[in-house]
Amino acid sequence: MLKKIIYLFFVSLLLFCLNLPAQDQKPFGKNVKILFLHHSTGENIWNGGVEKWFNQYNKKNNLNYEIRETAFPNDPYDWANYPYDYWLLWVKNAGKGHKGQPTLEKLTKDYQVIIWKHCFPGSTIEEDIGKPSVQSDVKSLENYKLQYTALKKKMKEFPQVRFIVWTLALELKGNIDEAQAKRARAFVDWVKNEWDEKGDNIYIWDFYAFESEQGLFFQKKYAAGDGDAHPNAAFAKKVAPVFCKRILDVIEGRGDTGNIMGQ
Questions:
Q1: Cα-atom radius of gyration of the chain, to the nearest Å?
Q2: Contact 1/9 with Cβ under 8 angstroms?
Q3: CA distance 124 to 132
Q4: DSSP codes joined into one string, 157-221
Q5: Looking at domain 28-251, what is its CATH homologous superfamily?
Q6: Whole-number percent of the chain with pLDDT over 70
Q7: pTM over 0.85
Q8: Alpha carbons 118 and 157: distance in angstroms, whole number
Q9: How does pLDDT run across 96-143, given as a tens digit for each residue?
């Protein structure tokens, strides 16, 4: 009887812990170095006023949150920044480097916050074939999930660093079909609801939600041009401040309790 009571007690305690609300984490200090890795979509958002926002916030609050951006991967690597590429550079070639690209072992020595994302061709997700491979550059849900699982494990090796991952940038209607768009949404849902975990050092910024506005495609009104899925200047100016606020949440310990859209 005593063993049964003890067993039930620990089961109840475990269930209680699993249902506890997310807790704020310890904030970083006054000096924080932030790195934003991106290609052209990210550059457009950056140009919407990210650096200016942080300069003003620092001045107002006597802080030194230093944010910089860089294209990643860049020459001589192919212009591709999809799940496969991050897996190849940071997991398969961990600690060694590949085609001149910095590893996480290197980046985490210099930055306390690292932000990474994919460009909109990442939403051209093809149908699964039932043979997932982490080493495949085919854009499919089954491959993406394996690559993200490996990337999460890798990022957790650096608990002193906080990572922010953008949800997928989207293509315009006509550039991808409805089936691809539905798979893109399914991947985003998986990332937010299953892949992301409370209490670790990895956080989400839900860029997809801004671009899609609950639809399946990137909203045409936000596009840089006809058939061009890069965000226009007005959209970039609109979302840059909430991107900054999301970074701020992560820096100041509200990564799990703050809104993943930065609102």
A1: 20
A2: no
A3: 17
A4: T-TTSEEEEEPPP-PBBTTB-HHHHHHHHHHHHHIIIII--TTSSEEEE-HHHHHHTTSSSB-GG
A5: SGNH hydrolase (3.40.50.1110)
A6: 91
A7: yes
A8: 22
A9: 999 999 999 999 999 999 999 999 999 999 999 999 999 999 999 999
